[in-house]
Amino acid sequence: MLPLATIGKQFVHRLAPLMGRRRVRRSAAAVIFFLLITILISIEFVPQRVNLREGQVSPVQIPAPRSIVFEDKAKTEEMRRQAAAAVRDQYDRDPLVSAAVQRDISTAIQGIREVQADTRADEEARVTRLRGVLPFSLSRETLVALTRPAPHTLEQVERSVNGLVAQALDSEEGITPDKLEAKKASLADQVARWGLSKPYQELAQGLIRYYLRPNSFFNAEKTRLLKEAAMATVPPQMVTIRQNEIIIRVGDVVTKEHLAKLEALGLTQTGVPWRILLGSAFLVALLMVVVLLYLYQQNREIYEHAGHLYLLGIVVVVVLAVGKAITAINIPYWPELGNLVGYMTPIAAAGMLIAILLDTRLAMLVVAVMSFLVTLMIDGQVRFGLVALVGGFVGVYSVSKLSQRGDLARAGVYTSAANIVVILIMGLLGNTPWGLMITSGVGFGLINGILSSILTIGALPYLESAFGITSAVHLLELSHPSNPLLRRLLTEAPGTYHHSIIVANLAEAAAEAVGGETLLVRVGAYYHDIGKIKRPYFFIENQLNGENPHDKIAPSLSTLILTSHVKDGVEMAREYKLPQAIIEIIEQHHGSGLCSYFYHKALENGHAENVNEDEYRYDGPKPQTKEAAIVMLADSVEAAVRSLQNRTPGRVEGMVRKIIKDKLMDGQLDECDLTFKDLDKIAEAFFQVLGGIFHTRIEYPDLSKEMERRRNKSAGSRKQPARKSAGG
């Protein structure tokens, strides 16, 4: 038998190729997230259950953790049994029995009458004949007495016995087989009280005992149907338990009613709740399919990016785990408040993280799904899910247009305010006491918003780093002038810094016009020329003294120095750990464009046949995204327009469109997704921004001449009154 270590190595060796497949990895991750979410919403990790038995003295006091209405099945069953027992057994009456019995009795009496009328026969013959008439046995003395004529007595017996039999058989109940003997004995007792002579008393009793028979027979089917109908009329016995109602107190003897209430609240359940677990599993699977279908239809980029799906699953699981931990908090001195800690579940944190890192619309959907899961996780109480839903939506909306880092803190404040309002509304609807409602609303609502903001701010850097995502918050941090790289650009290459600021304004306006990522474009424009820090004075915007070092070197060397700022910029960006999206803009902002000035200078220097155009081009690559292409166009347009001597609106617009056309014709825009319509919008955006930067200015007068003119005018006005006085 192989050792366990060897078996483990073989398993890992066989599993490794499978895990290397993209589909297998995604499926395994989906199963893991599915199991984790199902467990989180289904299983109570800190159960507050008791082990009580009927008849035991309770050692604890147990309040109801929530309001519930449930059916007391034992009580319902008992009420239905009582209703069924109240239904009388159903019998079918045979109406012919009474007449037949009376007829048989009259026939027997008639036989006795005939024997008494036969006076010619001797006594022995009459006794013998009487034995043949009566089907039951009587003593010889009784038979001898009955042979003697007594027509009135015999008629009285016939009339009385038939009347008594008719009364018994025609009664409401009739005579059932099980009550026949008792009825015979009862009627015989009545006969004994008639005062008849002993022979006729025995005759009457004998007639009753022999001829009386049942006329009412049990109908089992009819009885069953009536009992079932009676049971159906008994409604389920519902029991209402209100939150914080004391179910059982210390010292109370545990009854069936106590156990029924505890079981309905889930406080006596033992073992794994397999039915709940199975239902939760199906529900989680359904919700996961809904989210994936949404991504497949509306955001294929996230759907096809495994890392983004892993990020989505991690955020959901972690926030639900935090919510699970929060709901386990117990406040022993104020149990009513402890039942409301679910209001602190920070679903807004998941919404804000997904909105910042992935997509706002996806964040809205995930918040709705998680709010539903929170409802199930906290005993199906809709109020907690509703607070999570509203707070999550407000959180997502608050960060949907992030423009500065303080917006994250403000998002927490807005979420807190929304939570407080909804919690108070839920308190009013639930008739919660004012003190408890205000405490839970202000306290838990405020904590929810602050906790959501803290989780978002704390988790954001780690998630960005782990999944290689550049969030708006990171971009905002990079755009701050205090960033070390921007400060170096300002101090070591100030002309390039101011050039980058203008390029950023142009690029941001263009990106907004064509629906690009405006913040990414602005930050990318800030850093697109950071490579010029290494040799700033080789770039004209930094040449403050008018000396141009390119005048003293060959055009090929100038081109090499000029184009190297792209490579230098990429190296510096990686050194300062800039996001990959910014590095790509730096790398692509010149594409494979031609350094036309030095190329034509080389041609003018002679030996045109030895000049290779490829040596005077940037290394590329060409822009792969619309954001990189916009920065390229903004960079070229700013430099070209700045070189114009007479910047009239017509000349500026002509230059803008010429630059865009040249880049298009040179193939620099072939690999990005800009359309001709987008290029026209970009040109219009550039022109509007440039019109504000390079607008014409009025010519101000010479201030020294104006001041001299005013002094002369003032001096003349002071001399004029003196002359008038002299003339006077």
From TrEMBL:
The keyword Acetylation does not apply. InterPro entries: HD/PDEase_dom (IPR003607), HD_domain (IPR006674), HDIG_dom (IPR006675), Metal-dep_PHydrolase_7TM_extra (IPR011624), Metal-dep_PHydrolase_7TM_intra (IPR011621), PgpH_phosphodiesterase (IPR052722). Keywords: Membrane, Transmembrane, Transmembrane helix. The chain crosses the membrane at residues 28-46, 274-296, 308-334, 340-357, 362-378, 412-430, 442-463. Residues 705-728 are annotated as: Disordered. It comes from the Bacteria. Residues 492-649 form the HD/PDEase domain. SMART domains: HDc. NCBIfam families: HDIG. This is HDIG domain-containing protein. It comes from Desulfofundulus salinus.
